[in-house]
């Protein structure tokens, strides 16, 4: 009686083709995610995690597996779907490639058990890493961090600009807007890039004032627009769907218009008289209370808010406040930031 060969040896070419295709698929998917972590989020840790996963996959992509490839006879190369032809935004790209990678790793885990004793467990652990990476990417998305922000620093011109901002970041600040209207574009770009990098090092969001083109140039998380600035739809075309766009408002009518235009957040004020808005009549706490009842998007009370009156603003149901002089003019910006944040903790 002829000895029957084990099933694996009869099907080894097919198994190697499956492993080859899914190793390629997983590596490609992770690379797409890695590029976003590196160039859009500037998240060094996440990018390094992706790189290490790709290296692990490459180690298992042996010559034995590669030699089984038979692309001309692969019936799957002609299969497609209309949804594959377009992508709505970068978030969609990430979701699709995370799912693709997870599916490929599951295939590698199961068929890998037939190829090598350690292969199944290796790809099981990689699959868990991708799940963790997915949670990290979408739990810390710019819009989610915007929703959680309580204190928003709007900068003013200062010789100590970078040291002030870094001190406030050390104090817990999570949202910074660079505003320096009276200087030329090259200086704004240079300072904006440095501030953007600084904010991202501390996990904070960085917004450029007024100029969507400059926000794009420095890779800011978004732009803040005044009432006389670009329409939000135009800024969105410049920056894309995933960037944050804010709009200043001084009354309910402007608030309604900003929300209808698609603002991701609004400024509400000026609450008190402030030298940054000379000649502008304060909107007062009544407008703060109105925003608390009617705004469906995040909003920040702004204008003359300091350590002495912030409790009144918070008592009027403000979940976030924006300040300029209270931090930029403080002798100790870190302590000033901590004090302002403490007012939210004690409400």
UniProtKB/TrEMBL annotation:
Pfam families: ThiD2, TMP-TENI. GO terms for biological process: thiamine biosynthetic process; thiamine diphosphate biosynthetic process. It comes from the Bacteria. It catalyses: 2-[(2R,5Z)-2-carboxy-4-methylthiazol-5(2H)-ylidene]ethyl phosphate + 4-amino-2-methyl-5-(diphosphooxymethyl)pyrimidine + 2 H(+) = thiamine phosphate + CO2 + diphosphate; 4-methyl-5-(2-phosphooxyethyl)-thiazole + 4-amino-2-methyl-5-(diphosphooxymethyl)pyrimidine + H(+) = thiamine phosphate + diphosphate; 2-(2-carboxy-4-methylthiazol-5-yl)ethyl phosphate + 4-amino-2-methyl-5-(diphosphooxymethyl)pyrimidine + 2 H(+) = thiamine phosphate + CO2 + diphosphate. Pathway: Cofactor biosynthesis; thiamine diphosphate biosynthesis; thiamine phosphate from 4-amino-2-methyl-5-diphosphomethylpyrimidine and 4-methyl-5-(2-phosphoethyl)-thiazole: step 1/1. Residues 151-327 form the Thiamine phosphate synthase/TenI domain. SUPFAM superfamilies: Thiamin phosphate synthase. One of its GO terms (cellular component) is cytoplasm. Residues 1-129 are annotated as: Unknown. Keywords: Magnesium, Metal-binding, Thiamine biosynthesis, Transferase. Residues 130-347 are annotated as: Thiamine-phosphate synthase. Mg(2+) binds at residues 210, 229. GO terms for molecular function: magnesium ion binding; thiamine-phosphate diphosphorylase activity. Gene3D superfamilies: Aldolase class I. Belongs to the thiamine-phosphate synthase family. This is Thiamine-phosphate synthase. It comes from Dactylococcopsis salina (strain PCC 8305). The gene is thiE.
């Amino acid at each position: 009686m002829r000895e029957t060969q084990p099933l694996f040896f009869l099907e080894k070419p097919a198994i190697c083709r499956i492993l080859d295709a899914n190793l390629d698929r997983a590596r490609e998917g992770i690379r797409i995610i890695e590029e976003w972590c590196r160039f859009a989020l500037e998240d060094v840790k996440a990018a390094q995690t992706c790189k290490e996963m790709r290296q692990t996959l490459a180690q298992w992509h042996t010559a034995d597996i590669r030699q089984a490839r038979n692309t001309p006879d692969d019936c799957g190369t002609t299969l497609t779907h209309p949804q594959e032809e377009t992508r709505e935004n970068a978030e969609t790209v990430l979701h699709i490639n995370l799912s693709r990678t997870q599916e490929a790793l599951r295939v590698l885990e199961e068929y890998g058990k037939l190829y090598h004793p350690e292969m199944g467990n290796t790809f099981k652990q990689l699959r868990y890493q991708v799940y963790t990476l997915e949670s990290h990417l979408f739990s810390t998305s710019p819009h989610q961090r915007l929703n959680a922000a309580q204190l928003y620093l709007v900068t003013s011109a200062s010789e100590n600009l970078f040291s002030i901002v870094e001190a406030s970041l050390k104090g817990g600040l999570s949202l910074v807007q660079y505003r320096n209207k009276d200087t030329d574009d090259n200086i704004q770009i240079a300072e904006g890039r440095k501030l953007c990098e600084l904010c991202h090092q501390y996990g904070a969001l960085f917004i450029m004032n007024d100029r969507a083109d400059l926000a794009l140039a420095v890779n800011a998380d978004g732009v803040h627009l005044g009432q006389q600035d670009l329409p939000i739809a135009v800024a969105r075309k410049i920056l894309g769907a995933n960037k944050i766009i804010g709009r200043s408002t001084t009354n309910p009518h402007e608030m309604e218009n900003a929300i209808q235009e698609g603002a991701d957040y609004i400024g509400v004020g000026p609450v008190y008289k402030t030298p940054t808005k000379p000649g502008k009549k304060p909107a007062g706490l009544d407008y703060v209370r109105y925003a608390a009842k009617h705004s469906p998007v995040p909003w920040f009370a702004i204008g003359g808010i300091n350590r002495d009156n912030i409790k009144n603003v918070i008592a009027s149901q403000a979940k976030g406040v924006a300040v300029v002089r209270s931090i930029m003019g403080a002798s100790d910006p870190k302590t000033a930031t901590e004090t302002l944040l403490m007012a939210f903790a004690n409400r």
